[in-house]
């Protein structure tokens, strides 16, 4: 089961990583195109140092694309961001492009923001705005005129950067929410019973083992409660499995409500579970006294004081047979506690149903115990 959960969560993470890799690879390719266009634009001027710089950056970004394609992309976003900042800063500070060349800053800003997580993209874009602001002040007299002033360019650039960061912020929130829903759905599939919504057997046993280990150091009572719906096979036979499923849902809801009222289930997501078929299991921990424990059990056996009604009419008065095993008195391991509680439940069922029974009370009834297990074997064969 752990493999099942991990595999599906890993698949979600891989899909997200692949989308990001494709974006980084595309932005790296666009950046190479921009550098190549600049190289052709300034080749005749004889800027050999910039030619070498462009070639070096292009080689780095080519390697970055290769890393994205091979899915070893741990630092590809950082590499692209550093190359963009470094090359753009050098280009702005050490030569004077035409006013039209400044519009390349817009796609570069877009890449700096969207290839990074929102927090890092916002910080990098803020640094980039500072660089562009410094540049516009230094080169304003050369590049700009009265029709298009440096202040107008800078204002438009800041507005553009702010809007991109807002879009990136909400897209990140949406992505995080989708990932959360995906992981929650996977978790529910792995840990919850699909019919009743209670914990399934696997998640209950993992949680209960921890609670039992902790119970060794506490003074309260820890009790394993095993419950079975009386005459459930007749409901399925007479009314069909759809009605049977509705009954199981109702049982789960009433048991959950009953155990919530008691206040001795520290984790309602795991303390009550559907064990199998029409069997439910509950671990009560740190119950202060035996008197309070019996009061809780009385509440559980009294949850069906009204009939279940469906399209087929009244089914019958539902009742529960309940078996109880106490930690350290009856058993000290999870598997033994479950076995003892199950045994006590069959004793309660064989003794008239609609009641609870402690495991300790069945030891002096060896002949009846044999009848219980014979009856249990017959029921198991019938269910199969």
Average of pLDDT: 78
- Supply the number of helical segments: 13
Report the sheet-strand fraction. 5-15%
Low-confidence runs of at least 5 consecutive residues: 1-9, 310-314, 376-384
Provide the structure class.
alpha+beta
Order of helices and strands: HHHHHHHEHHHEEHEEEHEH
Overall geometry: rod-shaped
**How far apart, in Å, are the first and last alpha carbons?**
24 Å
Strand order of the largest sheet: 2-3-1-6-7
Give the strand tally. Answer: 7
Largest sheet: 5 strands, mixed
Radius of gyration: 35 Å
In total, the number of domains comes to 2
Helix content: 55-70%
Summarize the structure in words.
The chain is α+β, with helices and mostly antiparallel strands. It folds into 2 domains: 2-189, no CATH class; 201-383, Alpha-Beta Plaits, CATH 3.30.70.270. Helix content is 67%, strand content 10%. The protein contains 13 helices and 7 strands. Mean pLDDT is 78; it is low at 1-9, 310-314 and 376-384.
